[in-house]
Amino acid sequence: MITLGIECSSRKGSLALLKDGELLAEKSWIAERVRHNTIFQTLENLMEEAHISYSDISLFAVGRGPGSFSGMRMSFAVAQALALPGKDDVRAVSSGAALAFAVSREGAKEIAVVGDARRGQVWIGFFQALENGSIKLSNDWKLVAYDEISVPEGTVVVSPEAERLTEIFPTIGSARFPHAKDVAELALLQTQPEPLDPLYMHPPVFVEPKFA
């Protein structure tokens, strides 16, 4: 079984191919702005180097954020378009969960994944490492004001935007990014599907149309 993982919720995009759960090939890139041609060209190179055709893929795993709304929408569009001809399975995985999953394999038991939500807020999710090697979101994702943030002692805090959050989280360290390999692995472990939509922390803003 071939799984393609797609992760574009942060400025480090990535793609990964897994065969029967084992990494076959992966590629990543850094882009401050979303460029559609980057993901398509990188995907073509990945498929060619792995000697895999799109018809070989049985599962498409997409990182749904939180993070870059444009990047997440693009990931879903690519996965759903590629899955359509063969009616293959598309699964969504929280990008934050994928990052927590990677950190848990380094020995962390309690993990907080955070990002700068602007407007004086951060988005934050708390995860627990499980005995079976997976992770669990302790509560739902939340938007929290800068001056109301509370992180339990012993929690490892990570973020793709760590450089913006060092004053709030002095021990945060360097930026850490979710990766397509971990998105794909969590999709294979998934027992309950996540919505096939980006996880966008701010509610939509409706602007009433102006008529002449």
Describe this structure as you would to a colleague.
The protein is an alpha/beta fold. The chain has two domains: about 1-95 and about 180-190, ATPase, nucleotide binding domain (Nucleotidyltransferase, domain 5), CATH 3.30.420.40; about 95-165. The chain is built from four helices and ten strands, in the order βββαβαβαβββββα. The strands form two sheets. It has a five-stranded mixed beta sheet with strand order 3-2-1-4-5, with helices on both faces. The longest helix has 15 residues, at about 35-50. The radius of gyration is 17 Å and the shape is globular. The N and C termini lie far apart (about 55 Å). The model has no long low-confidence stretch (mean pLDDT about 90).
Question: What low-confidence regions span 5 or more consecutive residues with pLDDT below 50?
Answer: none
CATH architecture of the largest domain: 2-Layer Sandwich
The computed structural class is alpha/beta
Identify the CATH class of the largest domain.
Alpha Beta
Looking at this structure, what is the CATH superfamily of the largest domain? ATPase, nucleotide binding domain
Q: What number of structural domains do the residues give?
A: 2
Indicate the overall shape.
globular
